[in-house]
Amino acid sequence: MMFDFDVRSEAIDRLHAATAIFTAEDVVLKMLRQVGWPTPAGRLLDPSAGDGAFVVAALAQLALAPNDFAEVSRVHGWELHPLAVRDARTRVAALLLSREWRADAAQEAAARTVTEGDFLTDGPDTGDFALIMGNPPFLRRQSWPGYYLEHYAKILPAHASADLLHAFLDRCATMLREDGVMSFVTSDRWLFNLTAGQLREKLGEKVGLDHVERIDETTSFYRPKYRRIGTPPRIWPVQVVFRRAAHARFPLTSAAISPDEFGQEVPPPPARTLADVALVRLAPWLGPIGVFVVNTATAAAFDGHPMLPAVDTDDLDPATDTLRAPSRFALLTQRELEPEGALRNHLLQRLHLMPKRKGKRPYWIPPETITLNVDRPSLLVPRIARRLRAIRVPAGILPINHNISVVSEDGGLSLDELERLLTCEASQAWMRRNAPRLENGYLSVTTGLLRRLPVG
Questions:
Q1: Are strands 129-134 and 181-187 parallel, antiparallel or unpaired?
Q2: DSSP state letters, 154-180
Q3: pLDDT (tens digit, 9 = 90+) per residue, 261-293?
Q4: Sign of the C-alpha dihedral, residues 153, 159, 160, 165?
Q5: 197-204 vs 164-175: helix crossing angle, rounded to 10
Q6: DSSP type of residue 411
Q7: Which CATH architecture has domain 274-455?
């Protein structure tokens, strides 16, 4: 497929609108001090310069004698969006004018300092930068404009193609010279998400970690005028310092890294985890309420048809962490047997409410198959919560909507023991250190993470 320039320009605008979260000056200055800028020799690169925060702060610490192009050339930035390029060059020129540069020389130096272009495809190939610093864009692949989905598919390796941040980290690690340092503000997810394990492993072949530190998302950024003012970015940012693997303090492997425990003595792997003593499964999503999951009144119309009481987080009493009486039912159907009568009419009349189906899944089968065993009591663990919760669910009741179900297995812990384990302070503290953070103090509890919970 071919794209014209207007499509590319629109794609650039969309990328910029989604990723333009710029770093506050005090954070930039702290990062520059941390890596010892200005170094006695060597150049600094910002691969995603934005409006020039890192470039201008780095230049401001140089002598910048009037019209000294050689000194200015020690700092270089790349930026994709033309308006951001204009802003960055304007700031660079203003700094040089304040150092008594001629106006024409300041404009020329600003144009040389900030290059308009795509760093991932057209950036410099040489590794002569002592420092590579900045705030690379964070944007998951599914949110990329169509132009970039096709454009980057040709050049990005598989391990670096899930997020723009991954691509920038990988490219910069390849460019870094042997004695160089990289210092970036990044989202924390790449450090511990299982899906980023291959990225960490591949980066670790080139670089290791010197420093990882959480930074305050409410004060560390500012946004262009077209973005909502006063709202923090929807990320949990960290500042990360890399060196070549042979010179770094800590190796970088596929293993997950907790930003809250970085640099501490690594405890030995637990002898047992929750996966060793219980069955941890994800509850099915059966589609919008009103189709395969119905209220009590609707369920009465299907008297005699197989169904199960179904529970979600709104059926939990938050004060006592107990289950209220179920008020919904999951309709049970079989692939080999098309329903008839009232149930068939019910499903056909509500097909427009269901998401688009993949493959040849018949209309009478929900989006996800019910595989949970409800023959024995279980614990329901909400996936989004401020703390790790474990709510008793009697046998015969089905958790739904991607909550987590924990069931005692033969030879494992009893349900009482599992409940005590999940709710004890040691487990709460472990989850606070390792779970991805969400808005307003909430944590994202996943099945993979919960299975790794240490068992004493």
A1: parallel
A2: TTS-GGG-SBHHHHHHHHHHHH--TT-
A3: 887 655 677 889 999 999 999 999 999 999 999
A4: positive
A5: 10
A6: T
A7: Alpha-Beta Complex (3.90)
Looking at 3.10.129.10, 1.25.40.10, 3.40.50.150, 3.40.1570.10, the CATH number of the domain 5-244 comes to 3.40.50.150
- Which alpha helices (DSSP H) does 245-340 contain, by range? 274-277, 296-300
pTM for this predicted structure:
0.75
User: Is the pLDDT assigned to residue 229 strictly greater than 90?
Assistant: no
Instruction: Indicate the domain borders of the chain.
Output: 5-244, 274-455
Helix axes 415-423, 425-434, angle to 10 degrees: 60
Of 64-68, 109-113, 125-129, 194-198, the one with minimum mean pLDDT is 125-129
Q: What is the mean pLDDT of residues 161-172?
A: 96
Is the separation of the CB atoms in 398 and 372 below 8 Å?
yes
Residue 425 in tokens: 């302070």
Q: What is the mean pLDDT of the chain?
A: 91
Are 37 and 11 spatial neighbours (Cβ–Cβ below 8 Å)? no
